[in-house]
Fold this sequence. Notes:
Number of domains: 2
Number of helices: 13
Strand content: 15-25%
Radius of gyration: 19 Å
CATH topology of the largest domain: Rossmann fold
Shape: globular
CATH architecture of the largest domain: 3-Layer(aba) Sandwich
Strand order of the largest sheet: 3-2-4-5
CATH class of the largest domain: Alpha Beta
Structural class: alpha/beta
Amino acid sequence: MIKGLAHIADVAAFLREEPELYVVYDENVAGVAEAVLKDLPLAKAAIGLKTSEERKTLETVQGLCRRLLEAGASRNAFLLAVGGGITTDMTGFAAAIYKRGIRYANLPTTLLAQVDAAIGGKTGVNLDGYKNMLGAFRMPEYTFLCAEVLQTLPPREYRAGLAEMLKTFLIGDAEAYEAALKGVTPTLISKAARIKAEIVSQDPQEHGIRAKLNLGHTFGHAIEHEAQKRGDDIHHGEAVAMGMILAARLSERIGLAQKGLEKKLRADFEAVGLPVGCPYPLENLAAAMAVDKKAAEGRVKWILIEAPGRVVIQEMTVKEAMDDLR
Length: 326
């Protein structure tokens, strides 16, 4: 359930009566966690995490579960994740597996998490540099959209979140897509979150329509994998932006979209400061895409764009896609 609340104090008021509440927070946003905790006298413990893609591992989640066990957390425990997508992913995964499942909620502190990562119940960790290879579907009780926590977000983090917002609107709302290019508002954040939540509600475990939310991600995850191997600094949202450009190119090459789609998206993304050119040869991405968790029997479900606001799921092998892109 999405809760569009204005202030951190509202989140605390909503959870104040939870009898066994544990706050799990990214140490980079300790101030937000402290602001929540001062109004939560019943909170049992606060558990800080050092977060990065490299630390988004099963070992980190095991450590979190161990700290819950040491704190005496029972099956009635309720976790509140405070942080970006890495924090909400790992906290949700811990909630899915600790004592076979406990409740949790998200207070996402990045734009990317508010419009995408903290919504929908996909939880998990990376394995050997491959994104989210281990995980579980576990829906949060609530996701709190608190505009207050975005006020000090660094510009690069903000743009990365904008990439995921634009992705959502490319999937389902052409008018909102154009509006988001002019500036992000609380109304647009809420609209993007609710579009994702509506798609998820129709297909909670991604057997059909939910796959559309992966627009840009098959390419994007491969770009992230290559970046990690090389030690390059590429944010998830930036990789997704590059991935959407490649998806637009593929859509044109197979005749699904009218010529000019890639050019339009490139101009749009550049205007808001998002990267558009993949820095790696396609051949370097192919191996990672072949083992993408969405691949089945050698075929990948590519999310391609007919026009802003309309996408389709197209199955083909990685080789077929690479041949069309060359």
